[in-house]
């Protein structure tokens, strides 16, 4: 772009003539040097020099015609984008440099949008709008070392199969979405809520001890009873949860321990929170 601006004084209204001038000078420098040497030494063959110069002029013109033919589709695309209001307002819209700039900007914008869409699809649960398992793990993995500690909770909606069997899958989807909203609304902003799979959810309570995480889950369970997101056989929909302290070691171990604690909560009658044994940090 700097070179383009520096040469704008050469035929400022015609890029093709400017390209011709630059190409002519670049390709004829050897001839000009030969002409200077020939006149200085008296060894120039004028007829051959003129013939060779004319041949290079014709060759330069043919090359520029080829360049113009290659750039015409891009120029037409830029004019279309400009008419549709999709190209930035730039001076000399017909100028091929601006055409290329507009095309690159457009392509970059489309590429960014597609990458964002792919990233969202890969890390977000489409039904609930919260993170999926991959997004949950990626979020924790991206945290700095001093934030990779807290509590992991695995949560399961109690008797969810009855919701689908008795009320239908549409009601089941509504319950899942409502439960995700309830969880997200009742935890801290630094905590991470995700749909783990099926009717299971996961929460990462960042920089949180087990007492705090258990109290937070008990508060959510109480709200589920007083303000249920739905009922099955006249009973409020509840959940069971397993909580495990994580001090920055192997995350898979913490997840397995939390899942074991969830199993204990379900075996003990559901609608409760159970804690797993603490995990020692692995250095």
UniProtKB/TrEMBL annotation:
The keyword Transmembrane helix applies. Keywords: Membrane, Transmembrane, Transmembrane helix. The chain crosses the membrane at residues 17-37, 49-71. Gene3D superfamilies: 3.30.70.270. Its EC number is 2.7.7.65. GO terms for molecular function: diguanylate cyclase activity. Residues 148-278 form the GGDEF domain. It is an enzyme of class 2 (transferase). It catalyses: 2 GTP = 3',3'-c-di-GMP + 2 diphosphate. This is diguanylate cyclase. It comes from Sphingobium psychrophilum.
